[in-house]
Amino acid sequence: xxxxxxxxxxxxxxxFPRINSEATGAFHWYPGTFPPxxxxxxIEALTREGELVFDPYGGIGTTVxxxxxxxxxxxxxxxxxxxxxxxxVTSGLILSKAVDPTMYISTIAxxxxxxxGKTFENxxxxxxxxxxIDSVMDHLMRPAPQEVFAEMRATLPSKWSLLAPWYEPNTxxxxxxxxxxxxxxxxxxLGKLFGLVMLSATLRIASSQNRSWGHVADNVLxxxxxxxxxxxxxxxxxSRVGGMLNRSQVCPLSAKHRRAVQFWxxxxxWRSDSALKVGPKSKIxxxxxxxxxxxxxxxxxxxxxxxxxxxxxEKAITTMGHSEIGARRKRSNSLSExxxxxxxxxxxxxxxxFLADDGSVSIVLPHExxxxxxGAIHMGETLNTLxxxxxxxxxxxxxxGRTRQCWTSIKRETIEIYQHEK
Length: 422
Description:
Layout: H1 3-11, H2 37-46, E1 52-55, H3 62-69, E2 73-78, H4 81-99, H5 103-114, H6 133-140, E3 141-142, H7 145-154, H8 160-163, H9 169-183, H10 189-206, H11 213-217, H12 230-247, E4 263-267, E5 284-289, H13 299-302, H14 304-309, H15 314-322, H16 336-351, E6 355-366, H17 373-385, E7 388-397, E8 412-420
Parallel strand pairs: 1-2, 1-5, 2-4, 3-4, 5-6
Antiparallel strand pairs: 6-8, 7-8
Helix pairs in contact: 2-3, 3-4, 4-10, 5-10, 5-12, 7-10, 9-10, 10-12, 16-17
């Protein structure tokens, strides 16, 4: 890292007091996400346009979406199927805007027409044939949209009996009807996936249990039913997402790069010895991630309602939740933080094997004051053993008024950057 770049990083206000309206916001609610300015700043500092960014704990895709928006290639990995699906769909629409600034509007308008809306039909856009978006994405995304949609269909039918205790009966019937319309529509595969993310994103607020994601994760059923207007919730979601995509400043994709893969996505458990099903053949230029924090979140269980919708039963959810590194459910084990740190370090050894020798590793973890310093220590020792040295370290405050981390006692984080020893 050059002295000039180091000075620039030191000058950054890592608390990010102002929202960047040019970035793309979250399509789906998800606990523990960080502001897009954080990975965006690291991406611009550590990589050049066309280089490859990797997030092994990608969640709903904050890092990879920023990478694509800024003209980089991106590889997203996450264990949770809902995070994987959301990151895939968001990345696809960002790539569509990189090809044609109005292409995404046809997909939004087509999804809106499913429940009778016409807000986006009045917009002028050049890519009127929505079904053709798949042929564009076939060149840019791995797996292709048709493959991801087939994966989603393979887990069906939905577990409606498991969803029933969470919803007022008429509300659940509306969800069933809309779900069927999306699956059986003439939409492109990416359009159908977008529609499924829309429905998934509204499931928690449409349920009668609105207290917190923790109540869903802990399987605390509602005390009484409340009827919700699912169509209106979807319309609001589409309006918000459409506004975000409209404001988002996306680096155009040149004609030469429109037939080359720009994005890879894998649903993968790093504790497993199995190989990743999808990934780039070239080396990674930057690994940028915020791993799960010990005893903080149950990512899979928090998405229980969406997983029921996509055909997962309670046994499958329990299995996935148990394999999460650092899951909140494991906090009763007195050794949980030590196990978490060891699992992060073991996974990191696999993850850095994908990096180029001149690449960078950037990790965001809780500040040492929060009692989880074992993670940073173990990961740092692993990187040092493999020839990576720490070149930058900075603390940041988590702004509780804006963050999705307001559920936690963690108020500060530490950003660390490593590069390979020459």
